[in-house]
């Protein structure tokens, strides 16, 4: 989860988010280099009186400031396209879960199992236990096995929503009448928080997403207990 006064991204807990963080650092370094170079050029232009016509009307300079930006764009575009294709790859998921946005809560359906579906509401502030996070805790968590490819089918019942978990690098629009899909793999056990990222009405800020990643054996135990109750 995010922390107060945090400047950077949340720590990555999925391979995709690690790729996004690496790309962010890569692009940010290019931005810093360009900014430093432009600042140097501006300073030089202000400090020096240019009277040499071979400098102010140089074909070599024209070629450099045309080719160099194109090369920089290629350096940014290639890793960006690679990540875009990685985000679209869904190969043999171990588990498929359908997430449906409502005003203002999420409902989850484990499509591989019968009668395994539940609604997930935010826990009101007055009902929080010590150590729980305000506006982020839900009464029912989406439990998934760790280190397993999970496919999420995302839709909405009423208006536009967006299912987003930053630490996993997942963000997908929930659109009424349309079924979108995305995938993620958690690299370590833990509890990961997200929120609706599409303004969906008065209680838009009060429909959190909570994913609990547990070892496979613990997931099977949780699954058997839930199926017995239903």
TrEMBL record:
Cofactor: Cu cation
InterPro entries, per database record: CcO_II, CcO_II-like_C, CcO_II_C, Copper_CuA, Cupredoxin, Cyt_c_oxidase_su2, Cyt_c_oxidase_su2_TM_dom, Cyt_c_oxidase_su2_TM_sf
Gene Ontology biological process: ATP synthesis coupled electron transport
Keywords, comma-separated and alphabetical: Copper, Electron transport, Magnesium, Membrane, Metal-binding, Mitochondrion, Mitochondrion inner membrane, Respiratory chain, Translocase, Transmembrane, Transmembrane helix, Transport
Presence of the UniProt keyword Transmembrane in the record: yes
SUPFAM superfamilies: Cupredoxins, Cytochrome c oxidase subunit II-like, transmembrane region
GO cellular component, one term: mitochondrial inner membrane
Chief subcellular location: mitochondrion
Domain called Cytochrome oxidase subunit II copper A binding: residue spans: 92-225
Function description: Component of the cytochrome c oxidase, the last enzyme in the mitochondrial electron transport chain which drives oxidative phosphorylation. The respiratory chain contains 3 multisubunit complexes succinate dehydrogenase (complex II, CII), ubiquinol-cytochrome c oxidoreductase (cytochrome b-c1 complex, complex III, CIII) and cytochrome c oxidase (complex IV, CIV), that cooperate to transfer electrons derived from NADH and succinate to molecular oxygen, creating an electrochemical gradient over the inner membrane that drives transmembrane transport and the ATP synthase.
Protein name per Swiss-Prot or TrEMBL: Cytochrome c oxidase subunit 2
Gene name per UniProt: COX2
């Amino acid at each position: 989860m995010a922390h107060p006064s945090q400047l950077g991204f949340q720590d990555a807990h999925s391979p995709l988010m690690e790729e996004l963080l690496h790309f962010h650092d890569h692009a940010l370094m290019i931005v810093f280099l360009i900014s430093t170079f432009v600042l140097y050029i501006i300073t030089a232009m202000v400090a020096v009186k240019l009277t040499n016509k071979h400098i102010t009307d140089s074909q070599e300079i024209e070629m450099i400031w045309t080719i160099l930006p194109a090369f920089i764009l290629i350096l940014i575009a290639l890793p960006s396209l690679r990540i875009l294709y990685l985000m679209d790859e869904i190969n043999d998921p171990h588990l498929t879960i359908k997430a449906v946005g409502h005003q203002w809560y999420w409902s989850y359906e484990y499509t591989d199992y019968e009668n395994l579906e539940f609604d997930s509401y935010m826990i009101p502030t007055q009902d929080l236990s010590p150590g729980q996070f305000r506006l982020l805790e839900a009464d029912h968590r989406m439990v998934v096995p760790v280190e397993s490819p999970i496919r999420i089918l995302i839709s909405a019942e009423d208006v536009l929503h967006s299912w987003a978990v930053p630490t996993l690098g997942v963000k997908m629009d929930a659109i009424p009448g349309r079924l979108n899909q995305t995938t993620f793999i958690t690299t370590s056990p833990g509890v990961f928080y997200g929120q609706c990222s599409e303004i969906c009405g008065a209680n838009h800020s009060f429909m959190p997403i909570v994913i609990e990643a547990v070892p496979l054996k613990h997931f099977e135990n949780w699954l058997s207990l839930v199926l017995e109750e239903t």
